Amino acid sequence: MKLKIAVLPGDGIGPEIMDQALKVTRAVCEKFNHEVTFTEAIVGACAIDAVGDPYPPETHEVCMQADAVLFGAIGHPKFDNDPNARVRPEQGLLRMRKQLGLYGNIRPVMTFPSLIHKSPLRADLVEGADFVCIRELTGGMYFGRPQGRSEDGDTAYDTCVYTREEIERILHLAYKFAGQRRKKLTVVDKANVIATSRLWRQIAQEIAPQYPDIETDYLFVDNAAMRIIQWPKSFDVLVTENLFGDILTDEASVITGSLGMLPSASIGIHTSLFEPIHGSYPQATGKNIANPAAMILSAALMFEYAFNLQEEGAAIRRAVNASLEAGVVTEDIAEGGKAYGTSEVGDWIAEYIKSS
Amino acid sequence: MKLKIAVLPGDGIGPEIMDQALKVTRAVCEKFNHEVTFTEAIVGACAIDAVGDPYPPETHEVCMQADAVLFGAIGHPKFDNDPNARVRPEQGLLRMRKQLGLYGNIRPVMTFPSLIHKSPLRADLVEGADFVCIRELTGGMYFGRPQGRSEDGDTAYDTCVYTREEIERILHLAYKFAGQRRKKLTVVDKANVIATSRLWRQIAQEIAPQYPDIETDYLFVDNAAMRIIQWPKSFDVLVTENLFGDILTDEASVITGSLGMLPSASIGIHTSLFEPIHGSYPQATGKNIANPAAMILSAALMFEYAFNLQEEGAAIRRAVNASLEAGVVTEDIAEGGKAYGTSEVGDWIAEYIKSS
Ligand SMILES: CC(C)[C@H](C(=O)O)[C@@H](O)C(=O)O
Ligand SMILES: CC(C)[C@H](C(=O)O)[C@@H](O)C(=O)O
User: Which CATH code of 3.50.50.60, 3.40.718.10, 1.20.1290.10, 3.40.1190.20 fits the domain covering A108-268?
Assistant: First the structure.
């Protein structure tokens, strides 16, 4: 197969972890006989520095031409605590999501047995937790207009908007995932207070009968925030709107204790994008200490979701698990034993794939 | 002192736990020589059943005449999963908050040593956790207009609005709390995406210099959702807007493992209101098994915040702690030993106050 991949390393540790994902992707393509081309482009703070735009038109073009996008991380401390800065890296991220139509953000929440003790939760609550959070990514308050200030600057307003089309699209995606898993979908909203949530729930109740083999249940977002901690194993697939998803997926990401291991996928209209859930980790930049696993597992999701190449994805997963078992891991998860560098972990995983 | 208290038992277990809080309040007033009058009124599902209105004008009048309101819980399963029902108990709650000007919801998050093992978190992370969540309660998306549907019903919209006045008021309240505690305030927003949050952050940055002895820091809401679990002890006072507060305060309430023990206060313009953070717990209704501690500790907050009677509040706290130590507790927290009924726990605590 011919695979055209856009490569957006971004800021901070982005380039370092991306190098490892590319090594691994190359190893997989060699082994399974795929022809791969990588086209690199800039995004985030480094793009602001280079051309004054966090998501330049050239980068967008590269993504539009690609079958899949590998994305590192963006953000730089110099933009922190200045929410009024004229140009910010996040604006690039949001424009990218909108322009590529990346409507469905998928975050598998899984535990790695050897890392359970890192969880802030009691081991008995997280052992075996395995669910997927699906966040609508191009609607809601992130993009609703009007947004702004009154003339005198003393009143601010945001608008949350959802259309039937947007809600149906993400719910069908969520049902598709639930159908391939334990067949349980939890729709999270705040239908007891807001109108957009009432539309979500109405449409979910309309669609549910189309999936008779899937159990649908409904949770208010505040209850969901509790349940994720109290009983993570009660979830299979959770679906929610953009801002609730921002909060709940981050909450869910810390319960398994393996933040540096968790990948994500954003399913889109024009292409799909794959990125680790962690940030650009500026303090670690250039030190060869960042954990490349989440980025490498994002490449696994790319093989599975963008190219429907399940075996290739499985090969990456096996290699990452083997690296954990062999203790070839970075300092964030090394326990007692020796910590390896970012590129050593990448080399080891790529080698494992080639030689197995 | 003369204390005029409005009593709104509400639905489900509300009346049962309220009885215990009234016993305890009477005991305190007897001991400290206060003259107390209770005026009862209906609210919630029972008010819908009785008069078709979850917050009838008569109830509002009773609250307006009172120095403080004791509130049980509202909600009934028959209103669940029908977000489009014409009249809902929650509407009463929201109207009550707005009409009484209850702008600041205060939730102390504290651990009880004997209950730490009930926490879903590792004991080392929660032991000694002690912070206060302050949620703005009368602004934001809960009350912003326009809210509704397009003509064809296929688009829904909500509006989030905040004014300088609303933000300044809640921030000053939060600084007041921080000043009386460990002098650290965390302002939680989503200033990297939404306009109302940018106004929050701007105003917080303007106000912070007025409180030079208090350390102010800022967290995005998604980061806060992570940090609450990863490192609860890093918080002293957390302040945020209405909807973020709904989610984060519920998240925070489960980390200590003592949901049935946590009280809350809502500071208002016309009066203040005190209620447990748990709900109406329909399954337990009438069984004399509900834990009255959160309601009783809400009465303690009433003495402290509404009447500035610190010793009276402290007497209630001591009595509740003594009941824990003596094992006079309801089944939700009874461990191995005997479980007591709701009213037995209330009697014991009231007696302890009178006789100590
Ligand atoms: C950086 C920010 C705009 C972004 C979001 O809120 O979507 C981030 O938190 C995320 O979840 O990808
Ligand atoms: C019942 C609901 C309207 C309410 C809210 O969202 O404020 C509740 O969740 C709360 O936190 O008191």
Answer: 3.40.718.10
At B36 the three-state DSSP class reads strand
Q: Which residues of A touch B247 (CB under 8 A)?
A: 221-222, 225, 244, 247
**DSSP reduced 3-state for A122:** coil
Give domain B1-101+275-356's CATH architecture: 3-Layer(aba) Sandwich (3.40)
> Looking at the domain covering B102-268, what would its CATH class be?
alpha beta
Q: Which pTM was predicted?
A: 0.97
End-to-end CA distance of chain A: 21
Chain A: closest CA distance from residue B228 (Å): 9
What is the average per-residue pLDDT within A180-189?
98
Cβ contact A244:A189 at 8 Å: yes
- Would you call A290 helix, strand, or coil by DSSP? coil
User: Are both A1-101+270-356 and A108-268 of the same fold?
Assistant: yes
Q: Tell me which residue has its CA closest to atom 5 in ligand 2.
A: B246
CA B246 – ligand 2 centroid, Å: 7
Q: How many CB pairs under 8 A join A and B?
A: 169
pLDDT in tens, A226-281: 999 999 999 999 999 999 999 999 999 999 888 899 999 999 999 999 999 999 99
The residues that bridge with A70 in the sheet, in sequence order, are A7, A274
**Which pLDDT score, from 0 to 100, does residue A258 have?**
85
CB contact under 8 A, A157 and B160: yes
% of chain B beyond a pLDDT of 70: 99
Position A339, amino acid: A
Residue of A91, A115, A136, A157 to mutate, interface with B, max B Cβ within 10 Å: A157
Using DSSP's 3-state secondary structure scheme, residue B10 falls into strand
Q: What is the dihedral of CA A25, A27, A32, A33, to 10 degrees?
A: 90
- The full set of domain ranges for chain B reads 1-101+275-356, 102-268
Please say whether the beta carbons of B275 and B71 come within 8 A.
yes
* Rounded Cα–Cα distance for residues A227 and A121 (Å): 13
Query: Helix, strand, coil shares of chain B as percentages rounded to 5?
Result: 50, 20, 30
Strand partners, B275: B264
The answer for B 188-217 residues in CB contact with A (under 8 A) is 190-199, 201-202
Fold classification of A1-101+270-356 (topology level): Isopropylmalate Dehydrogenase (3.40.718)
What confidence tens digit (pLDDT) does each residue in A38-87 have?
Answer: 999 999 999 999 999 999 999 999 999 999 999 999 998 887 666 567 78
The structure tokens listed for B13 are 């277990």
What pLDDT, in 10s, does the model give residues B227-280?
999 999 999 999 999 999 999 999 999 998 888 999 999 999 999 999 999 999
Q: To the nearest 5 percent, what fractions of chain A are helix, strand and coil?
A: 50, 20, 30
